[in-house]
Design a protein that fits this description.
Helix content is 37%, strand content 24%. By secondary structure, the protein is an alpha/beta fold. A 6-stranded antiparallel sheet has the order 6-11-7-8-9-10, covered by helices on one side. The protein has a 5-stranded parallel sheet with strand order 2-1-3-4-5, with helices on both faces. Strands 12-15-14-13 form a 4-stranded antiparallel sheet, with helices on one face. The protein has 3 domains: 121 residues, Response regulator (Rossmann fold, 3-Layer(aba) Sandwich); 100 residues, no CATH class; 89 residues, Beta-Lactamase (2-Layer Sandwich). It has 11 helices and 15 strands.
Length: 336
């Protein structure tokens, strides 16, 4: 993902010189400009910013005030200070205020670029994934109780968002000037995303008072309302087994379950369903990313009358079961 770097300085000639000099790094980051702290606040509201590079001495709102604002409202965004009035005391103040870097004028563009790239690299220290379903991946983050900051880019619309997790709990979400649950709903409606993971989370306060699963379901509900022509998440198109997966194979699996567990095993139906194929592919990608081994089975609890067990293959096999079924036993029998 191309990351946005915000340059803030009242010297417009220097701003445009930096922007021109950074063109060679366009594959790594894009540059946005602001001529003082107040303009910078507007840019921060309207864009997902990965790094702020700001001068100290500016009108309206100086660099120290901007640094304080970023640390309070955007603690995930690192700040590099540039100044033409460098003293050891000023550098100490900047670092105590939260700045991650400090560079004195005059400087070589290459030296500042090196600091920027080093800082941006931390955004994806936990890894990157491309073209995946955000919902399934984030549920795994919750299950693993990870503490991380995740930056996402919608493959279809190019919009960017950010999520904050601490011990598997979603603390906050942000898309431009949208924050909290409304931002989370928007992010979870994206079908395919690129994402990068940063280990650690700068946020402390929990601004989202909800578990992850209800947020994802609500996002899907809103998406269905906006696009009624789309196939609803709960609708399953049953596909008869083809020659490559004969009915006998499904019958043998059904007989095995009933034999090992008994007629009261909770088995409702067993069939193949192409609706789940893409989801199984996504789960396989996620499992490989976390080095969890080969994907064998998935148990899906959607809050419907029945739950579903997914078995990967050329076509996904779906085992529809009563939620009261002996889950551990039926999973063990299927996997043997």
């Amino acid at each position: 993902m191309i990351k946005n770097v915000l340059l803030v300085d009242d010297d417009t000639e220097m701003l445009h010189a930096l922007k021109a000099g950074f063109k060679r790094y366009k594959e790594s980051f894009a540059v946005l400009l602001a001529e003082d702290g107040l303009q910078a606040l507007e840019v921060l509201k309207q864009n997902i910013i990965s790094l702020v590079v700001t001068d100290l001495k500016m009108p309206n709102m100086d660099g120290f005030e901007l640094l304080a604002h970023v640390m309070q409202h955007y603690p995930d965004i690192p700040v590099i200070i540039i100044t033409g009035y460098s003293t050891p005391e000023m550098e100490q103040l900047a670092r105590e205020g939260g700045a991650v870097g400090y560079i004195a004028k005059p400087f070589l563009i290459e030296n500042l670029a090196r600091q920027i790239l080093t800082t941006l690299r931390k955004e994806s220290e936990g890894g990157t994934l491309h073209n995946i379903s955000s919902g399934m991946f984030l549920q795994l983050i919750e299950m693993e109780q990870k503490t991380c900051t995740i930056r996402l880019e919608d493959k279809e619309g190019g919009k960017k968002g950010i999520l904050f997790f601490r011990d598997g709990d979603l603390l906050d979400a942000r898309i431009n000037n949208m924050q909290g649950e409304s931002a989370a709903h928007k992010i979870f409606s994206w079908d395919a995303v690129n994402l990068s993971i940063q280990n650690g989370c700068a946020l402390k306060e929990n601004k989202i008072q909800s578990d992850l699963q209800p947020l994802i379901l609500e996002a899907m509900r809103r998406k269905d309302e906006e696009h009624p022509e789309a196939v609803p998440e709960g609708v399953i198109e049953q596909i008869e087994p083809g020659p490559e997966e004969p009915t006998e194979r499904l019958n043998r699996l059904k007989a095995k379950i009933e034999k090992e567990i008994g007629q009261q095993c909770g088995l409702e139906d067993l069939y193949q369903d192409a609706f789940w194929d893409s989801r199984v592919t996504q789960l396989s990608k996620i499992g490989a990313f976390f080095q969890l081994g080969k994907f064998m089975l998935a148990y899906i609890d959607k809050g419907d009358t029945n739950d579903y067990i997914l078995i990967p293959g050329p076509k996904t096999t779906v085992v529809s079961v009563d939620p009261r079924c002996p889950r551990d036993k039926i999973l063990r029998v299927i996997s043997e």
